[in-house]
Amino acid sequence: MRYQPVIGLEIHAELLTQSKVFCTCKNEFGGSENTRVCPRCSGLPGTLPLLNKNAVYLAAKAGFATDCTVNNYSSFDRKNYFYPDLPKAYQITQFENPICTNGHITVKGGKDIRINRIHIEEDAGKLVHDDYEGISMADYNRCGVPLIEIVTEPDFRSVSEVQDFVEQIALRLKYAGVCDARMEQGSLRVDVNISIMPVGSDTFGTRAEIKNLNSIKAIGRAIEYEIERQSDILDNGGTVVQETRRFNDNHGDTKSLRSKEEAHDYRYFPEPDIPPVLLSDEDIEEIKKSMPQMPQVRFARYTKEYGLPDDDAALIISTKEFSDFYDETVKINPDYKQVSNMMLVELNRNLNDLEKTINDVPFSPCDLAELVKMSTDGTVSKNAAKDILKIMFDKGGKPMEIAKNNGFIMDNDTSALEDVIEKVISENADTVQSYKEGNEKVFGFLMGQVVRAGGKGVNPKLAKDLLTEKLK
Ligand SMILES: [Zn+2]
């Protein structure tokens, strides 16, 4: 039988706060085990949590980044379970009253994926299984790192919808400064809830949850595997069991971890040590105002208003810093296409050669705007503009100064150029004869001689026109 997958996501994103969510330990990645722990985040009796205000702001920003409603009232609950990476034996989370609700993101193809909620919670520690044979070690550095969990409705019907959604979430959280979204480091982790149903049916099947997928590729492979596994079970007359499974990246398969818990298994109850979070309308408005323009809005502006091709616009928005640089440059020189070309081709070429990023560019958008203008208005040739950009990277300086000091200013003096051409023609009589006999290939050689004799300031178009004229 042919089946249709039904998929929902739970995405955990670590917040970019300086300190942890309920104590003053540093919120960082890496370092030695158990060096960032204190009585609070290691769960010693008698300690009280103190909520990090910035974690609340960042969670609200995540809400604005995904078109959620940011709620005036939210509160914390305890989720009780025992596991060695959770020394308190409960996780503080938002169960009854999450900070954000009812968002959505439009994925490729125009379909809206609904976001049920975004809530704040604390991360657990990590168990290290591989360092000592037969022994697992607990590292509590991650205990109490602030997280948001983004929970979608089961609106996905294909791998590509899921992958596009996760890519968009990662990019938007980065733009908003909420999370660095380094999936390989675990700062963004995706749980996939997946069931299948016969094509044409609208009754959902029993779902399995695949935990902690940490790359876009792994998400795709895990879903494909799970569709096949569940299809095989149903085709052979079996029933899918509701459970939590782990994806093994090396084998490309999923294995059962445990039967899936229901909410009541966790005995949620209100966290008595943290007062509810109250955000006034003014607070919420202020957070909203601090949001940068989101990548999907910029993409629409670049393609619809500026007339850039989709591929170019997608490359420009790939980081906020690159897009900001582009926006600053076209504010000064609104030649959208030429600025885009200069940045995507020449600027990126230099950055790649130097193994640097847009943050390391040693000149201002204003300088780049001027360089593009000099190139388009004929002050310098296209090739000279490339050389000038390289000098701006290597030695610094303003484009116009560099052009003057290096003889790049295009010479539009026709009579001087005519003299140069006359000279080249008389010195290459044989080649000229060959051209006149129909060998048009040698034109390039003659042009090369003209450019060489005339220097860097030769206007290539003018030279070509004059040379063609003289050779008639
Ligand atoms: Zn601590």
Considering the chains and any ligands shown, give keywords for the structure.
alpha+beta; three-stranded antiparallel sheet; binds zinc ion; 472 residues; 3 domains; elongated; Arc Repressor Mutant, subunit A
Question: Please, could you describe this protein's structure?
Answer:
With 472 residues, the protein is α+β, with helices and mostly antiparallel strands. It contains 15 helices and 16 strands. The protein has helices at residues 53-65, 159-175, 216-235, 281-289, 295-305, 310-316, 320-332, 336-354, 365-376, 382-394, 399-405, 414-427, 429-436, 443-454, 460-470, and strands spanning 3-14, 69-70, 73-74, 77-80, 90-93, 100-106, 112-122, 126-132, 135-139, 146-152, 188-198, 208-213, 243-248, 253-259, 269-270, 277-278. It has a nine-stranded mixed sheet, covered by helices on one side. Strands 5-4-15 form a three-stranded antiparallel sheet, with no helix packed on it. Helix 2 packs antiparallel against helix 3, helix 12 (414-427) crosses helix 15 (460-470) and helix 14 (443-454) crosses helix 15 (460-470). It is elongated, with a radius of gyration of 30 Å. The model has no long low-confidence stretch (mean pLDDT 93). Zinc ion binds at residues 20, 23, 25, 37-38, 40-41, 144.
